[in-house]
Amino acid sequence: MRGLVAIYRKEMGHYFVSPIAYLVAGVFLVLTGFFFYQFVAIFMERASEAAMQSMRYGRAPEIDVPGMVIRNFFGLLGTVILFVAPMLTMGSYTEEKKRGTMELLMTSPLRELDIVLGKFFATLSLFALMLLPTALYQVVLFVFSEPRPPWRLILAGYAGVLLLGAVLIALGGFLSSLTENQIVASMTTFGLFLILWVIDISARGSSSAMGEVLQYVSILRHYDDFTRGVIDTSSLVFYASLIVLGLFLTQRSVDALRWRRA
């Protein structure tokens, strides 16, 4: 446990002095803020049009603006994370190799699992800190909207975002451990996440046996349940399995690196 905490503190200290971390966080918040504003504007306009039709014809349906904004915001957030996560994980191990500190880790008494978990939780913490300011959007929506959005929908959405981010961080960390070049790690991770995105697009609307298989392995398909306020046990097991798989592969990769150094 001490080794894990030492790695975690070292990684967090590195993130807070890294301009890349601030750049990624800034771009992420600008994008999420822009799209949140757009969703509010779009659904407010639709609600106004529905109200006008209701006054004229008395049969226009009411629009749940807060609920629609939250569901669409979290839905888009899942796609944005696919493209932001590679920038968070690309330097997890490649930077260590570049600075020559990976050899120190390999010759230290630290266990491979401590190294892997320390880096994983540090990156996940950075990701959670990036998400924290977006909670202000929900607070503003909760205070000024009527009817107020259900807390269950918001909490389920953030739970889904954190689980999706944890999966991508675990997989991205593994790919980072395979190379010594940050650009290669970033492009490889981006390519994998792009494939996952394409799988999700291909699976939607398909009723064939292959389509059902693709729907089950689609990480965004499981994420959709969270955006609707539904926390499904199968989705939790699916994400937990992918996280464990990514961490296990990373540990094996680090272990192989230690044997090559020996």
The oligomeric status of these chains comes to single chain
Helices and strands, in order, run as HHHHHHHHHHHH
The best one-word shape is: elongated
Number of domains: 1
Uncertain stretches = none
Number of helices: 12
What portion of residues belong to β-strands? under 5%
Distance between the termini: 24 Å
Average residue pLDDT? 81
Detailed description of the structure:
- The protein has helices at residues 2-16, 19-57, 65-89, 94-99, 102-107, 112-131, 135-144, 151-176, 182-203, 209-217, 219-227, 233-261.
- The protein is built from twelve helices and no strands.
- α2 crosses α6.
- The longest helix is centred in the first third of the chain and has 39 residues, at 19-57.
- It has one domain (2-261).
- The mean pLDDT is 81.
- By secondary structure, it is mainly α.
- The chain is elongated.
Protein topology:
Blueprint: H1 2-16, H2 19-57, H3 65-89, H4 94-99, H5 102-107, H6 112-131, H7 135-144, H8 151-176, H9 182-203, H10 209-217, H11 219-227, H12 233-261
Helix pairs in contact: 1-6, 2-3, 2-6, 3-8, 3-9, 3-11, 6-8, 6-12, 8-9, 8-11, 8-12, 9-10, 11-12
From the structure above, extract its key features.
mainly alpha, 262 residues
Quick structural overview:
This protein is mostly helical and 262 residues long. It has helices spanning 2-16, 19-57, 65-89, 94-99, 102-107, 112-131, 135-144, 151-176, 182-203, 209-217, 219-227, 233-261.
